[in-house]
Amino acid sequence: MDQEKIKKKTLTGRLYGFCGRFIPVEKPFLDQRRQRLAVWYVLILVLGILSDLLELSGSFDIFYKYTNSIMLVLTLLWVARYLAKRTGILLTVSLLSVTTQLFIAIDTVYCAVNPSVPHTQMVMLVNILILTANTMFAVATYQGVMILVDVVIAIVAFFSCMLFSDNSNYKQYVVMVVLVFTYIGILGLHIARISQRLQDENTSIKQEEEELMHVLRLNKEQLKLYIQLAKKEYSEDETRLILSQFNERTQKYIIDNVTKYINAEASTGERIEQTFPDLTPSERNIAQLILRGCKLGSICMILNKTESNVNTQRANIRRKLGLQPTDSLYEALKARMDGKIKNR
After folding, report:
1. pLDDT tens-digit profile of 205-250?
2. For residues 285-306, b (16+ Cβ closer than 10 Å) or e, as one string?
3. Any idea what DSSP says for residue 117?
4. What span, in angstroms and rounded, lies between the C-alpha atoms of 154 and 257?
5. Contact between residue 165 and residue 122 where contact means Cβ atoms under 8 Å apart
6. 173, 225, 249 from 256: Cα distances, Å
7. Distance CA 155, CA 148 (A)
8. Long-range contacts of 119-122 (CB under 8 A, 24+ apart)
9. Which end of the chain, N or C, is more open, meaning fewer C-beta atoms within 10 Å of its C-beta?
10. Helix, strand, coil shares, percent, the chain, to 5
């Protein structure tokens, strides 16, 4: 609860909370992440386009007025389709990033072939940075193959600058730029695949959990209480406090079932003591667990003993029963118990 309040107080939380009144609700975690980043992305992108159209920042060339206007219309169109639930969040962020990448690349190539554009070198440099940032947005929103599309567009734009621009620095750094964008593409594709796999596994776990809850006719809180009871030994008051959180019917079932089990175990213990009077109390405990079908590891865990200790006592039991190495200890114990019951 406190974390949720803190989250809402942050700038991201406030912005997302305001926009949350109008945008669709996404349930999968990855889609929630995509949606949050998309809110910031659209806000920054629209502000950047408007700053150029209003000649507040950027290169004020008429060609950029047209391309930025078209990009703004397409951006608002993709957002409107998403708000109308005509497209999903993954397709929406993919359309946004590819549209931005394509138009920024067009602006960059135009700048390279038209040296009359004001501040040519600065425009190309800023556009390359925007292409890089936009590719990282594709990576951050787990777009998969569309990341590679953005990478290819960025590399083509850089090659165009190298071919059409008089600046020799582009040729000098072309290999480095290609390697960086290629690595970003491979990294983004890898992250997208792992994230999708994790989401699929998480969905599968949730489905299995819901099925288990349905079979057991429990909710999560009740299951947590059962686990809490099984973790350690509690005092009477602590046990009563935990049980009080169940309804009376459930409390009755728990107490009745546990009581029946304890009585059955006590009865079995008495029969073992009568059938095997030569065994020590510790050996009788092990015999009882063997009759229950417990393996060595389970016996060690239940009795909190080492394997060597349990194996020693098993050997003692076998010796006292006069068993041969090939004889089954479980079958021998069971046969003696059945024989004792028939004689009573």
Report:
1. 777 767 656 655 666 666 666 666 666 777 777 777 777 777 777 7
2. bbbbbbbeebeeeebbeebebe
3. S
4. 68
5. no
6. 78, 17, 11
7. 10
8. 119/59, 120/165, 121/167, 122/59
9. N
10. 80, 0, 20
